[in-house]
């Protein structure tokens, strides 16, 4: 989760501004209007200070706090072809849109790290586990 936060925090000031959030949403090409992005941002900005801090993002995506429909939307960001699973290639494409130069080899390792059933893909249940498990990874 910290890694996702760092990708959205483009100026590396330790918080995500509404502009950074909108830019990341646009880079992911999810068809989100400025109004929808502003509303989503407002929901995550729990303390109302105009920024999303890491703890707010963790609270939003933490275990039990995110509704299945919201988790499904997050999954769909990465499932580019809509087949119900995320491949290393899809992961690589999304990360490139976010400005992260992640090689296909590195993405394959990332998929392998969360691929519980060993099929070479991240399915929705594996994605939920990945998004709701908190750890100290950078």
From TrEMBL:
InterPro entries: EF-hand-dom_pair (IPR011992), EF_Hand_1_Ca_BS (IPR018247), EF_hand_dom (IPR002048), EF_hand_pair_protein_CML-like (IPR039647). Gene3D superfamilies: EF-hand. Residues 1-31, 32-64, 66-101, 102-137 form the EF-hand domain. Keywords: Calcium, Metal-binding, Repeat. GO terms for cellular component: cytoplasm. The keyword Calcium applies. Signal peptide: none annotated. PANTHER family: EF-HAND CALCIUM-BINDING DOMAIN CONTAINING PROTEIN. The keyword Metal-binding applies. Pfam families: EF-hand_7. It comes from Arachis hypogaea. Potential calcium sensor. CDD domains: EFh (cd00051). SUPFAM superfamilies: EF-hand (SSF47473). This is EF-hand domain-containing protein. GO terms for molecular function: calcium ion binding.
């Amino acid at each position: 989760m910290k890694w996702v936060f760092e990708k959205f925090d483009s100026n590396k000031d330790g918080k995500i501004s509404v502009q950074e959030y909108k830019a990341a949403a646009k880079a992911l090409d999810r068809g989100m209007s400025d109004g929808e992005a502003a509303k989503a941002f407002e929901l995550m900005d729990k303390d109302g200070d105009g920024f999303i801090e890491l703890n707010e993002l963790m609270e939003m995506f933490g275990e039990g706090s995110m509704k299945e429909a919201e988790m499904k939307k997050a999954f769909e960001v990465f499932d580019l072809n809509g087949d119900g699973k995320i491949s290393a290639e899809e992961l690589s494409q999304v990360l490139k849109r976010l400005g992260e130069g992640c090689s296909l080899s590195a993405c394959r390792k990332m998929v392998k790290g969360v691929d519980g059933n060993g099929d070479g893909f991240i399915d929705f249940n594996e994605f939920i586990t990945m998004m709701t498990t908190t750890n100290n990874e950078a």
